[in-house]
Amino acid sequence: MMHIRVVLTSLALTALCFPTWAFALDKPKGEVILTVSAPHLDHPNIAETAQFDLPMLEALASHTGEMETPWTEGKVKFSGPLLRSILEAAGAHGTKLKIIALNDYSAEVPVEDAEKLDTILATRMNGDTMSVRDKGPLFLIYPFDKDASLFNEKYFSRSVWQIKTIEVSE
Fold first, then answer.
1. What domains are defined for the chain?
2. Ordered DSSP codes for 138-160
3. E-only strand ranges, the chain
4. Alpha-carbon dihedral of residues 122, 116, 145, 60, nearest 10 degrees?
C-alpha cells in the first residue's frame, strides 16, 4: 500500500513539474485555417507544425471586444481566441512573430504584444464567422476598445487580416 502511494505521489509531482508531457494538440478534423511554425514547438500535431481548424481555435481562451477600427464602419464586435492562447496551445516560444496573410502580406509582431495585450485572432465579426471577403478567416485585432493609445499606425500595421500562418522566431 505504501509503495502505491509513493508511485502515485511521484506521478503527480512529475505531472506538475513537466506539464508539457500531459498536453497533446489534437489534429484538425476540418479545414486547416491556421498553421503555427517555429524552430521548436512543444505541441506539434502535423509534422513539425501546429495546425488548427476553426473549432480548435474557438475552443481556446478567447476575448470579445466592441470597437471602431480604420477598416470597418461604426462599432464592430470582434471575437476569437487570444493570440497568447494559440501560442500556448502550440507550445511556441520566441520573441518575434511573423504574421502571414493569404496573399503573402506579412507583418512582424513582438511576442510581447500577445503576452501583455489582449490581442485576438478574430474568427467572428458581429457574431458571424469571417469569410475571406470580410477579412477572414482570421484577423489580428488589438484591444483598441480598452486602450486608446493603441489606435495608431504602429498597431494598425500589425493588424493583419486573412491570416494563414504564424512563424515564431527568436
1. 24-169 (3.90.420.10)
2. -EEE--TTT-GGG-SHHHHTT--
3. 32-37, 50-53, 62-67, 76-81, 96-101, 106-110, 120-122, 124-125, 128-129, 139-141, 163-169
4. 30
* Per-residue DSSP letter, 84: H
Q: Which three cell numbers stand for residue 50?
A: 501546429
- What Å distances lie between residue 75 and 40, 72, 78, 152, 160, CA to CA? 39, 8, 10, 17, 19
Question: What's the pTM value of the predicted model, to 2 decimals?
Answer: 0.85
Query: Residues of the chain whose pLDDT is less than 70?
Result: 1-23
128 forms bridges with which residues in the sheet?
125
Q: Look at residues 7, 86, 96, 10 and name the one whose alpha carbon lies nearest to residue 49.
A: 86
Per-residue pLDDT at 15: 43
User: Alpha-carbon distance 13 to 26, whole Å?
Assistant: 25
* Residue with cell string 500531459: 22
Instruction: Look at the alpha carbons of 32, 37, 43, 46 in this order and tell me if their dihedral is positive or negative.
Output: positive
Residue 23 has a pLDDT of: 59
**What pLDDT does residue 24 have?**
78
Number of H helices, E strands in the chain: 5, 11
Identity of residue 166 = I
